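Can anyone check this?
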Amino acid sequence: MTTTNGSAEHLPIALRTEALEQLLTERGLIDPKVIDGLITTYETNVGPLNGAKVVARAWTDPEYRHRLLEDGTAAIKELGFGGMQGEHIVVVENTATSHNVVVCTLCSCYPWPVLGLPPSWYKDPAYRSRIVKEPRTVLSEMGLDLDDDVQIIVHDSSSEVRWLVLPERPAGTEHLTEEELVPLVTRDAMVGVAKVETP
């Protein structure tokens, strides 16, 4: 689809997307129902809420936490989360002395079943290159200041292995139930660029 001057670049993104989808559908290359289903799944049915449920269960159930750290994929499946982009998830735990953060230096590999679609900053070349070289500086720029004696470990996701951070449970939440803990857990804390705040 082109404008009168022969260029499609000035058309609204939604219109260009619709035209491309129509063309690919007409050629039999995509099924709109499949595309719509994927979008609905990752925008509505899954996302950071799934990961938050995993974290809250690990915080309240020591046996589950052990299984999660031993075999993240299997433990996550216990809660019904799995599928595309979640075939092999390794879970690492933040503590008072070590802090884990996740990046994908090659592209934007990300554990969709527990975190939904990756945020734009995760795909940004600056984050992907700098977090490896100067993690403390990048985390500080993102609002997370860690003490100098805290070891920072950077994990590089790939198509074979995706990482999920089990954040530290904030002090003062010992009285909260699993269900009450879920809303406290953010996507950024499960990537390792933030901590879970005390309510």
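Reply from J.R.: I decoded it. The chain has a mean pLDDT of 89.
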